[in-house]
Amino acid sequence: QVQLVESGGGLVQAGGSVRVSCAASGRTFSTYGVSWFRQVPGKVRDFIAGINWRGDSTYYADSVKGRFTISRDSAKNTVYLQMNGLKVEDTAGYYCGASPLIVPMTPSQIPTWGQGTQVTVSS
């Protein structure tokens, strides 16, 4: 079972950029797909971006295409989400989750979550 820790969130001005990280600790598996989700109070945790275990396939929600980039550094056992052109509506808690064999697209496919990192975009 993999353990995940998110970091890198904070207060960012609209139009700015931030990179959040999802680092694995403890026992990890090279065959896990990893995805980023975000959640605001009163809403479901929504899929944002995903990457397969090889790091050669990526997937994005329409709302972030062209602005966000997911990447994977196998040597560091870390997945990143580079967020550019931030908007106020991007304000949310950002969570990473891992799933064996697949790129998870729904929360039900993820057995293990990180604790999340808050990204707040100011106008």
Describe this structure in words.
- The protein is mostly beta strands.
- The protein is built from no helices and eleven strands.
- The termini are far apart.
- The protein is globular and about 40 Å long.
- The strands form two sheets. Strands 2, 4, 5, 6, 9, 10 and 11 form a seven-stranded mixed beta sheet that branches. The chain has a four-stranded antiparallel beta sheet with strand order 1-3-8-7, with no helix packed on it.
- Strand 7 (68-73) and strand 8 form a beta hairpin.
How are the elements arranged and paired?
Blueprint: E1 3-7, E2 10-13, E3 18-25, E4 32-39, E5 46-51, E6 58-60, E7 68-73, E8 78-83, E9 92-100, E10 112-113, E11 117-122
Parallel strand pairs: 2-11
Antiparallel strand pairs: 1-3, 3-8, 4-5, 4-9, 5-6, 7-8, 9-10, 9-11
Short description:
The protein contains no helices and 11 strands. It is mostly beta strands.
Q: Give the radius of gyration.
A: 13 Å
- What percent of residues adopt helix (DSSP H or I)? under 10%
Separation of the first and last Cα atoms: 40 Å
Largest sheet: 7 strands, mixed
The total count of strands amounts to 11
Low-confidence parts: none
Please state roughly what percent of the residues sit in beta strands, choosing from under 5%, 5-15%, 15-25%, 25-35%, 35-45% or over 45%: over 45%
Sum up the overall morphology in one term.
globular
